[in-house]
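One chain given next:
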Amino acid sequence: MKKTYLPAETWDRMQYLFRRYYDGMMHAVFYYDSELDKEVLVKAYTDVITRIPVLHSSYEYNPVKPRWRVNEVFSADDFFSFIETDSPEEETEKFITRRINPKSVCQIRIGLIRSAGKDTLCVVQNHMCADGGDFKVFNAKIAEYYSALLSGTQDSVVVKNGTRAATQIYDTMPPEKAEKAKALYKNVSNVPSKVRFPFARPDNDVCRILRRRLPAESFANIRKNGKAMGATVNDILLAAYILAVYKMTTPADGVISVPNMIDMRRHIEGGQTAGFTNMTGFMPCSVKVDPKDNLEDVIKKVQISLEPSKKDEFVGLYGLPLLTLAFKIFPQAIAETAIRIGYQNPLIGMSNIGLLNQKDYAMGDKLPYYAWYTGAIKYKPYIQLAATTFMGEITFSVAVRCNEEDCKIIDGFYNILFGLLGQLDY
C-alpha cells in the first residue's frame, strides 16, 4: 500500500520545538450524570478521526524536513479506553495528565470513565495537531456526530479537512493588508519582565492539573461591576493574575509581563481555518505595579497596556512571517537552533479559552453538567493560568509538572487570586 504523507506545518514544528517547555497536549473533560452509549461513542470518534488525517498520523522527525505519515489503518484500541471505577476523579486525573508520543498511531486519546451510572469523558490531543480553538471545534463535532448517529443522519455531518498551513491566515485579507501582514517580522516573545513564579525546587515532580472554580453568582457580579468601569472579563482576569503574581514575587521594579494567548482566526473571514490546525498568537501585556495598587488600579493599567493591541488590526500576527521564513530557508535542525536563540518562552502566561456552550457537547439528549479545558502541562519554571466558562461558572487551571510543595504554593496563589476577584464580587 502506498504511504500518504502530510507536511509538518509551521505551528506543528514549533509545537515540537516547545517539547522542552511543556508536555505539548491539549486537555478537556466533560461530566455527564448518566451513561453514554459506548459503542456509538467509539463509532463517532472513529468516523470523525478518519476524516481528519493528522489525528491518525505519526510524526516523522527529520533534521531537514519533518512530516506526518498517515496511518490508513487504525483501531479504537489506538485511541479509546473504557474504565469502570469507584474512584472517578482519581482515574480522571490519571488519564487526563498522560502524554501522547508524536510517533503514536493516533494523536488523540479518549477515556470514558464510568462510575455509579455516571460518565466522565476525558480527551487528550497532541497540540501539534491543533490549538484550543480547533480542539473545541473537534469536541463539539463529536457530540454532533454522536447525536446524528442516534437519528441516522450522520451522512449530513460536515467535518472540515482543508489546508492546515499557517499562511491561510492571509488568504481572505484584502491584498494590501495581506502584504503588510506578511512583513511583520517583529519578535513578540521578548518581554521586559523576567519574573518567575516562586515554585519549589524540582523534587519528585509529576504532571498535575490544579483547578479551582469561581461560582456563577460571583462571576456574574464581577462581570457586572467590571463592565460598569469599562473593563472586559479578560481585562479583569489578567489584572487579577498580574496582581496575584506581583504579591507572590514583589519584583524590585514592580513590572509583571503576561503574554495573553489570542485566537488568530479573528483575521480569517468566517472565523475558521480550512482544516484542523494551530492558529494562536500573543497579545503582550506589561504592567508596573505599585505596592499600594488594588485590583481596580491594576485593571486600569492593564487597559492602558492592551489599548495599542486592541486597536491594532494586526494583533497576534507579529512574528509569524519570521517563523515561516526560518522554516522555509533552513533545514529543521538549523531552524530550531535559530528560533531558540531568538525566542523567549513566556515564564508567565495566560489563556482565556473562553465560553463552553453546554448544548455544543450534548450527546443526544444527554447534556454535560460540568466541563473544562486546559492547555499544555508546563515544566517549571514556566506557568500558565487557563480559564474556561461553563454555565456561568469559571474554572481556572494551572497545568504544571510539580511536587506536593508546589501544590501548596499554587493553592496559596489561588487564595490570593480569588481574594482579589472578590473585590468586585458585590
